[in-house]
Design a protein that fits this description.
By secondary structure, this protein is of the alpha/beta class. The chain is built from 23 helices and 18 strands. The strands form 4 sheets. Strands 9, 10, 11, 12, 13, 14, 15 and 16 form an 8-stranded mixed sheet that branches. Strands 1-2-3-5-8-7 form a 6-stranded mixed sheet, sandwiched between helices. Helix 19 crosses helix 23. It is globular and about 75 Å long. The relative contact order is 0.08. About 5% of the residues have low confidence.
Length: about 575
Amino acid sequence: MDTIDQYYFNILDEVQNRAEINSIDRKQAFSEIISDYLIEGEVFASPSICAFKSPRDGISIDGYELSEEMNTLHVFISDLDSDPFNKVISKEQTMNLIHQAEMFVYTAITGQLHNMSINSIEDPEIYDLAMTISENSQSIRHASIHVLTNRICELEDILPEEDIETTQTTYHIWDLRKLYSFNIEGKQMDELHIKLNEQFNESLRLIKTPVVNNTYECYIGYVSGSLLAKAYEYYGNRLMERNVRSYLQARGKINRGIISTAKNDPTMFMAYNNGLTTIAEEVKFSQEEKSGFVEISELIGWQIVNGGQTTASLYRAYTSKEDLSEIFVQIKLNVIKDMGQKDELISKISEYANSQNKISISDLRSNDAYQADLERLSYKTPVPHTADPATKWFYERTRGQYNVELNRHGVTPAKKREYQKEFPKNQVITKTEAAKYMMSWEQFPHIVSKGAEANFLEFCNKVREEKIKADEGYFRHLIAKGILFRETDNLVKSLGYKGYKANLVTYSIAAISFLKKENLDFDKIWNRQKIDDELRKEIELIISFSWKHITNPPQQGANVTQYCKKADCWESFQEKLKKQNLVSL
């Protein structure tokens, strides 16, 4: 296992690699890498990376995420240090970073944008974000300020929550120790510790079942609809067990039925609804009775493994001002006693609970065969016109796999250089990148815009439903689409567009596909390992057209990032593409 000192230098290597491959500065590369970890750790869902600094206002942010419901705001600020001898960030330095991000949140929520040096021309994305926050300040109930640093923070105590107007604000520090614990030791990024009475003025009163074993305890009973809705509002998808999260999407009829019952027949909700299956790592009791009833005041590591649609739908009803006072949902709470069996137990509970809803066990896997095939093909498919040795593209099926293989094969610096000749750093492609390339080309830019995890889950569904099999031809075309995507990304940067880069690139790729899907020669791109000058000129024109579309939503003042996540954005763009003779494609 790497020591924390070795891990520090591994992060710097990863930052340098990403900066070189994507032609970005090292701080932005660091922000991207750590936000990816936080997505995996279920802290973020689809953060946007930016770089805004206004010394006059004392403001600096490096990324943000605003939920589609406009109720939760995340803002983060990054600290990247390359000093090999001083890996500590002081309390004063940390507080200074917090205050810079906090000032942005405060100024936007309180509507004091006239006091902020944000130029709508130079910083359109940040200006758009600030305006959206200001206009929706009454809806934003929770704001989180995050410090991302590759140093060890001296500020160990969690800062107390504060209120900015009506917005509850929390503070989080992701330092070298936390990142090391997550990436190397396999610990949770941020354990859910829900204090029911303190946070929601309500506890859970359940019955302990007479199950006696050393693995788990089980409690059954009911939970109020309002408690579920409020918990989901605060924690969002972090409450949902990862294996089943993809099934919370696109189930309109089921969700509408749940909402309809909540609105029109609330007293029948318990009869019509199947309830929740949940797990927790630990519970704390405020009361235990001899009759078997317990009152639970705190839940640690609580996850909903079945009933996600019920929870999310009740939240929708709650935000629509529906009265949930008469709604109760049956609940089964499994509390894990043997943490050594935690992962296996959670997996089995999830599989068995969801199999009752006609979700097959294979649906709960991440298309292992497909992913394994791509990994296998990456080892055996040489890049044309390369030799001594022929280079290959490395398909990273699991996070950090490239570095693991590099260290396994490269026990000496010379061996590492030899391995990197065969698998160069700039020819590494992760599974989430592959999903982004494929979904962009398949004309789902609105899905790609929802972030890496949401897009990956949708792509997995597509692979399963269409029974896609990966052979060598498929792999070559996947890499060619990756080359097209990366070169379009570089073009966007070189052309000087400010903001919305992720949205602009995926919409441009989707537009290219829409205009010339049958005519683009991916074998040619694979053989050349680059696009030709004629295609590059066409893409430049398409980028310009895409920019005009995404930055002019039909509803004046609508947030561009949120607009790009909507199917309407892509549908209206297709109509424009049909009418506009862009190029002779």
